[in-house]
Amino acid sequence: MRRILLRRLVQIVPLLLGVIVMNFVLIQLAPGSFLDVMTAEQQISDPAMIEKLRVVYGVDQPAVVQLGKYILSVLQLDFGFSYRQNAPVFDVIVAALPATVILMLASISVAIIVGVTAGVIASVKVNTFWDNLVSIAAVFFFAAPTFWLGIMLTILFSVRLGWLPVGGMRTIGGTHGPVADALDVAHHLLLPALSLGLFYAATYVRVMRASMLEVFRLDFVRTARAKGLSRARVVVVHVLRNAMLPIVTLVGLQLGTVLGGSVVIEAVFSWPGIGSLMLDSVMSRNFPVVLGVLVLSSLVVAVANTAVDLAYLKLDPRIRAR
Amino acid sequence: MAITASYPFIDFARHFVRNRAAVLGLVLLFLLVALALAAPSLFPRNPLRIVGRPEVWPFVNPRFPLGTDSLGRDIASMVAYGARTTLMIGLFASLTATIIGVTVGATAAYRGGWVDEVLMRFTELFQTIPNIIFVLTIVSILGQKIENITIAVGLVTWTPIARLTRAEFLSLRDRDFVQACRAMGMGDLRIVWGEILPNALPPVIVLWSLVVASAILFESAVSFLGLGDPNVASWGGLIGDGRTLIRTAWYICAVPGIVIMLTVLALNLVGDGLNDALNPKLRDR
């Protein structure tokens, strides 16, 4: 187990190097020099300051030296300095990370709970009204853009019914005590997590339904029925457990897209995470932050993928034998 | 000759038509293409021009069947011109993705060894980078032009095609007919291009229809976030513009969203139909 973990972690290194090199190529491709754009957008006109930046970013040196220095500094977690927030880029990104992770986890939970439940219902009541209803809902949520769904849900639940807040993460003015605070965040989290989660739930429903139907046909299920176990017990304990494996695979594969999707959803609900930071930085051409987000979010996905692989090993011991 | 050549197509069409939902999807797609082609004659004026009072609701004024947006631009006209933008980006981005994906996948599988290892690591790299973040980075650095958006979307959607092509090539590479070609002294390029690729293509075509759908979703997300090309009408951009008015004029967001949804739905249905018609393993069940 530990050897596999170590091997996976070592594999992350070239991956990260690749992202860094790609970053560097993008900077070189930018029209005008990186420094021109930055100083113009940040409205830095002091020649002494420009000279200082030139040395800090090493723009006067050849590209290969620049690349080497860039890799070295990123490996030291130094992504440069953001003048917009007046803080090191790394600190700015790490400060925004928790909000995004909360949103991601909540969305994945929504996707798994809704997807698995609906998939089980569809497979148990296969080819009935309920099955069709679930299929139609899945098609709807799969085809609807997440940001549009988010806006439509806001119109319904926030504007018309007034049940939920339109955006943000906490009520302005604040609440008192950790419990009240957590409830407040959950209240704000509901709509964004639902908009993002329902899209993935649509995929999970299809996979879950197919996988359940497949497992229903296996011999051990017949044995369980023949033993006289109740229908509910057979479905939950015997079939559900075995049908869950493809879902774990999917969750692992889609972590990157969930992180990407949360960027868009954060913009809809002004959720103060990586996405909002990214968008703000893109709009203000604050490139050090943009590139830092690209590298760090790739790292998050790579680490999360490793975690899912390990979970898979735990769930299915047959893989370890290989 | 003409008759024998048309047999597979008739066979294909018969299997495709058997899937009713796929036919519905195809009809929707045809309507969309027709709308895109007819946009200049239906709405001769620039869709981004102000033509009436702002915030006219749909079905109120017959001049503006889908209403007007916050600036008084005709939503029906913007939807029609948006179809052109969306289809163009969907088509060219998916073509870019297919070319990269097929090249990488075919080379990796056919060469094997270290080439395979390097190319698959490369694919993994693109899979790890969160796609929309990558698209936003490229567009923000290279500029908000429609060409850059197309390339960026192509760059984040090619990985599934590469993996699928590689898998197909791996299973075909050592078949007897390929061995026979090698024994005949055929060049590598000719074997790959003329012999293996046509056999590997059917599943890739099915996946391609889904890549078009995801390219359209990416484009709409980019435009929605305000990073689209400001000089062309776009469905996502329309939703982004209408977002501030959800209290008074929510239809501005609703209308283009429904159009995006129908387009993605149609592409998925057609993909299912293609899968039924092209996948011989599932045939005649």
**Domain count of chain A:** 2
Output the CATH homologous superfamily of the largest domain in chain A.
MetI-like
Order of helices and strands of chain B: HHHHHHHHHHH
Strand content of chain A: under 5%
CATH architecture of the largest domain in chain A: Orthogonal Bundle
Class derived from helix and strand content of chain B: mainly alpha
Mean pLDDT of chain B: 82
Report how far the terminal alpha carbons of chain B are from each other: 31 Å
Computed CA radius of gyration of chain A, to the nearest angstrom: 24 Å
Main sheet properties of chain A: 2 strands, antiparallel
Low-confidence stretches of chain B: 1-5
The N- and C-terminal alpha carbons of chain A lie at a distance of 13 Å
Strand tally of chain A is 2
How would you state the average pLDDT of chain A, rounded? 80
Largest sheet of chain B: none
CATH top level of the largest domain in chain A?
Mainly Alpha
Largest interface: A-B, 47 and 42 residues
Helix segment tally of chain B: 11
Helix content of chain A: over 70%
Percent of residues of chain B in helical segments? over 70%
Tags for this entry?
heterodimer, A: 322 residues, mainly alpha, MetI-like fold, 2 domains, 2 strands, globular, B: 285 residues, 75% helix, 0% strand
